[in-house]
Every structure is written in structure tokens, then in C-alpha cells.
Amino acid sequence: MSGARAQRRGERDRRAGRRRTARRHAMAAAASVVVAVGTVSGLLTATGGEADDTAGPRPEVTGSAPYVPPLPARPRPAATASATVSPSPSPSRTPAKPSVPPAPEPSVKKREASGEPAPRTVSASLYRHPASQVLDWVRANPGDPRRAVIESRIAAQPAAVWFAEYDPGAITGRVRAVTSGAAAAGRVPVLVPYAIPDRDCGGASQGGAPDLAAYDGWIRDFAAGLGGGPVVVVLEPDSIALADCLSEAGRAARYASLARAGKALRAANPRAKVYFDAGHSGWHTAAKMAGALREAGAATSGDGIFTNVANFHTTAEEAAYARRVLTALGGPSHLGAVIDTSRNGNGAPAPGEWCDPAGRSLGRTPTTRTGDARIDAYLWIKLPGESDGCSGAAGEFSADYAYDLATG
Asked: Do residues 399 and 148 lie in contact, with contact meaning Cβ atoms separated by under 8 Å?
């Protein structure tokens, strides 16, 4: 009898042990769910922002942003609620061509980190939006020894304003707030709509409108906010150069939508200049890029092409490439190109070094007076100092990275 009682007691102890183990597993699972929910919430927040906020400069989609893996950094809210970040370098879907690192641009020679900031002329025509992560940092860090350099060489410069959120109820007002501010200042804003469906081929900057019909409506609402003054529109970085991930039918549908977008933007404001995505000089051949641009209506629905968004290839390389693409594209003789010079002062890093690579520097100051045939402007489309995800969280401003670019 005592043996039976001992057996029953042992069985009860084993059942209690199993229950304790089950409770521990359940608690661990619950903790995992909390972590997962927090991660998802962070990703959702990163693509959003207040629906009625005014966009400010921050890519990308942009990270674009775009060419060696991985894909651009997801756009995310800035320190001020009014802005959207630009993406990191977009990866190429073809191997980067090997090259000897080019010499630095003449306007961005190596500067002594300890000296006074060298004077840099701000363009009299391009608009500097008053809300950006770099401006937030400058205002919040008056005593930082890096402040004078970052303020004079980065924060003082005009830069693009990204609209990376699919927000059909608010986009007109957000665009209008920027264009009206630029008009009041007598300046030209650079706007980046970044909401094409299947953006970034499902990579780090995935998002955008749910489908092309929704995108068509969103871009018409975007166009309604352009006003009547001069404006530059950098239409959907990576949307053409990174379209190989789509099916043939998917590419054709996207290209048709981009052609409609270009027409809608120019119809809403005849003074708007609309530029289509041409990747960069280390990605597709000029002939391949021109063929895709032709399908997307760039020669008939736009004013030219843009290159080097969020990348590092020198201005000379990009200008030569852009002219080759324009020649292959054909179309009206007035078609031109704009080049992102925000981080290309020392040229491209070694292949595969895409994430906040060391040794880079600011490129030529933004201007519409390039003196270069068929090159309409040098622009800062990717905002210098916004991390690709190594010097800080992807899309967030890094003072260390900004200072390195400003003194590189």
C-alpha cells in the first residue's frame, strides 16, 4: 500500500513538473510575442508619420537608396513630425563594374577637421526646407564642437523633400505646404514622390500604394499641391532601374503608370520639371536604361532623367553616363539630367561597401547652374548625414557620419 501511495505521489510530482515547464514555455512565448509586436510596430512607424503633416527633407525610398546589396533603408519619421527620411544606396542588380577610385571633386578637397568651416555658397535658386533632421540636430546641439562644420556645410544647403507615405487624404496639403513656402521665399523646391506599388521590390524600403490604380489617384493628389511656381520633381527613385524584379506585365503596367504620373504632374503645373529614374553609371548600360525609360514615357511625359540617387559615383562619371542615356533615349533636344551629388565628392567606395562607407565626402553644392551640357542641376537628393544603417539606425541622422562627410 505504501508503495502505491509513493507511486501516486511520484506521478503527481511529475504532472506538477510538466505544468511548471509548460508555464515557463508559455511565458517565454509571450515574451517573444511582445518583442515581435514591438518590432512590427517599429516597422510600421518607420513607414508612417502623421497624415496631415508637412513633408520635410530627410530616401529611401529614399535609401535610396540605390549598387550592391542590400536594398535601400526604409523611410522613417524624422525627429520632427513633419519630415520624411531619404533612402540609402540602392543595390545594383548587375555586378558593379570595377574601377580605380576617382580623384575627389575639385570643390570638395580634404579639409582640416579642426579649422574654421570653409565658406560654401548656397544656391540662390533652390529651396532649403526649414524642417530636417540635420537642422533639428544643429538647433539641439549649440555647444557641440562639430556643429559649425555640420551647419555651414550641410544644414545650410538646399535639399530634396521626400514624400514616402501613401496618404491620399493628406498628400495635397503636404505638397502645397512645401511649394507655397518655396514660392514665398522665391526659391525652387525639389520634391521626391516615393509611393510606387512594390517599391524597392519588397526590400528594406518596401511600401507604397496598394496598387497602381491607387497610386494614380495619389500622384494626381500630389500634383494638385504643386502650385504654379517652378518646381523640380524627382519621380520615384529606383522605379525603373530596379524594375527587373517585376514580371514583364508588371513592368509594362508600372511604366504606363509612370508615364501617366509625368503627364499629370506637368499638366497640374506647366512650370514643373519632371525627371525619370535612370539608375547610375555603375548599374545598367545606357542602352538598356534608355529602353526602359522610353517604355516609361520619359521622352514624352517628362523633362529628362535623374541619376546617382543616394550613391557615390563622381559627377564627371554621372554626367557622361547621363548624356549617353539621353542620346540613346532620343526625344526632344531639351531633355536634360539632374545628378545627386550629396555624397560623391570622393567617388564610389570599393564594390560591396555600400553602408555608410568610410572615406566619402560631400559632392558639389546644389545648383541649377552647372555649366555642363545637358546637366540641368546638381542636387542633394539623399540628405548627407542620414545613415544607411551602420553609423546609426537606417534613415536617422548621424552627427559622426555627417561630420565625416563634411570634412572628408
From this structure: no
Q: In b/e form, how buried is each residue of 57-81, taking b as 16+ CB within 10 angstroms?
A: bbbbbbbbbbbbebbbbbbbbbbbe
Query: Which phi and psi angles does 8 have, rounded to 5°?
Result: -65, -40
Q: In what order do the strands lie in the sheet with 272-277?
A: 161-163, 190-193, 231-235, 272-277, 304-307, 336-340, 375-379
- The catalytic position among 167, 376, 388, 404 is 388
Write out pLDDT tens, residues 119-159. 333 344 999 999 999 999 999 999 999 999 999 999 999 99
Beta bridge partners, 277, equal: 306
Residue tagged active-site, from 53, 198, 200, 404: 200
133's CB contacts (< 8 A; 6+ apart) are 58, 78, 79, 80, 83, 85, 383, 385, 386, 396, 397
Q: Catalytic: 216? A: no
Q: Which uninterrupted H or E stretch holds 369?
A: none
As a whole number of angstroms, the distance between CA 53 and CA 175 comes to 10
How far apart (Å, rounded) are the C-alpha atoms in residues 127 and 130? 9
Q: What is the mean pLDDT of the chain?
A: 78
Contacts of 137 (CB under 8 A, 6+ apart): 79, 150, 155, 397, 399, 402
Q: What is the pLDDT of residues 169-210, one digit of tens each?
A: 999 999 999 999 999 999 999 999 999 999 988 877 789 999
Catalytic residue among 238, 303, 356, 372: 238
Report the alpha-carbon distance of residue 182 to residue 391 in Å, rounded: 32
Measured distance CA(88)–CA(387) in Å, rounded = 7
Residue 84 pairs in a beta bridge with 77
DSSP code, position 155: I
Is 388 one of the catalytic residues? yes
Give dist(CA 45, CA 67) in Å, integer.
27
First to last CA, the chain: 87
Whether 216 contacts 260, CB under 8 Å: yes
Q: What is the largest CA-CA distance in the chain?
A: 105
Using a 10 angstrom Cβ sphere, with 0-12 exposed, 13-18 middle and 19 or more buried, the burial of residue 118 is middle
4-31 pLDDT, tens digit per residue, is: 444 444 555 555 444 444 443 333 333 3
Respond yes or no: is residue 238 known to be catalytic.
yes
